[in-house]
Write a structure and sequence with these properties.
This protein is an alpha+beta fold and 153 residues long. It has 7 helices and 6 strands, in the order H-H-E-E-H-E-E-H-H-H-E-E-H. A hairpin with a 2-residue loop joins strand 1 and strand 2. The protein is globular, with a radius of gyration of 15 Å. The termini are far apart.
């Protein structure tokens, strides 16, 4: 097997971390993991995910919704969910109700990075990149980065 990329190694460490978090931060992390995902007809389509991210999503849904939100129908990267999870849409719409403590935005950004981000090894070069298929998703996330003094290109 080839050498793992810096980005994949970083994502693995974040996804498998056993860090304790408040319930509000757990919701923010799940929101970040689902941000930019395609949600339709009570089905969640996970694009470009790995086993660790998938496990983290299942773990978060189970912990936060006590299996009430997850249907046991997984077809590849499609996961059946109920309308309680489908309410996640844009940051602008929900950030004031989801980000309840000083750490919530950080957990949200972790989730977004796990699903949509890449990073180069800072010892070689530095580039942090997020890729979204929808323009409004990208624009909303760029607004959040600006609010945190990170200037997107």
């Amino acid at each position: 097997m080839g050498k793992e990329s810096f980005s994949n190694t970083t994502k693995y460490e974040i996804a498998t971390s056993e860090e304790k978090m408040k319930r509000c931060c757990a919701f923010s992390l799940l929101y970040g993991l689902l941000y930019g995902a395609e949600i339709s007809n009570e089905e969640l389509l996970l694009k470009k995910t790995n086993a660790e991210n998938e496990q983290l999503i299942f773990k978060m849904i189970d912990a936060l919704f006590k299996n009430k939100a997850l249907k046991i129908s997984k077809k590849g990267a499609r996961i059946g969910i109920n309308k309680e999870i489908c309410r996640f849409s844009t940051i602008v719409e929900y950030k004031n109700s989801i980000f309840k403590c000083a750490n919530c935005e950080s957990f949200f950004m972790r989730g977004v990075f796990l699903m949509s981000g890449t990073v180069n090894d800072p010892l070689k070069s530095y580039r942090l990149e997020f890729v979204f298929s929808e323009k409004n998703t990208r624009d909303d996330f760029a607004e959040l980065l600006l609010e945190n003094s990170i200037i997107p290109k």
